[in-house]
Design a protein that fits this description.
transmembrane, 0% strand, Transmembrane protein, mainly alpha, membrane, transmembrane helix, 189 residues, 2 domains
Length: 189
């Protein structure tokens, strides 16, 4: 029951952000779209156990939908047409957030690390693209808004790197390794 409430809260916040989406691409891309993805991730359906045969197909579906919503054309369509608007509110939670949550526990640490690195590199690429493009990429937003969005992408990328590195350096296995290194260095002296 709590997952329904959290998912509903994320969806309500995403709906509330709609008021500012038309005027600010930062709210659109870095607030509303992540909230919609979180809404799908938190759905109780995300606890279902997937058959191993479909994990790869579900992951590909989530990655394709996520890539589509990174395109400036998709953002414009969501602002200009009612079909794009409905597609955003339906596909991001149900075809990106939920499928990603369904497959995440089935992925090995190497693939999870690769997807995290790919996310950071894509955010940095988008940050560079939006700040250095000689023309407007989204017809619905001004060039200054586009540059702010590019800086926002870069900030999110750096924040994710820090967030994902904290457990690496705070984990007990890292401290054990560090302790063993100090024991070894003490022996050599």
């Amino acid at each position: 029951m709590m997952r329904w409430g959290l998912s509903g809260a994320a969806f309500a916040l995403a709906c509330g952000a709609q008021f500012w989406v038309a005027a600010d691409p930062v709210i659109h891309m870095l607030v509303q779209i992540p909230l919609l993805a979180i809404c799908g991730w938190l759905l109780p359906l995300a606890r279902w156990e997937l058959p191993k045969e479909v994990v790869r197909a579900v992951l590909i579906l989530a990655l394709v939908v996520g890539a589509i919503w990174m395109l400036p054309r998709s953002l414009d369509a969501a602002l200009i047409t009612w079909q794009g608007h409905i597609a955003k509110f339906a596909t991001i939670p149900l075809l990106f957030g939920l499928p990603l949550a369904l497959v995440w526990r089935h992925l090995g640490s190497l693939l999870k690390g690769f997807l995290k690195c790919q996310s950071v590199s894509m955010l940095l690429f988008l940050g560079f693209l939006y700040t250095h493009a000689p023309v407007r990429l989204c017809n619905s937003y001004l060039v200054d808004d586009q540059v702010r969005l590019g800086h926002g992408f870069a900030l999110v990328a750096f924040a994710l790197v820090i967030l994902w590195l904290i457990p690496v350096f705070a984990s007990p296995s890292h401290r054990e390794t560090k302790g063993k290194f100090h024991e070894f260095s003490h022996i050599r002296h």
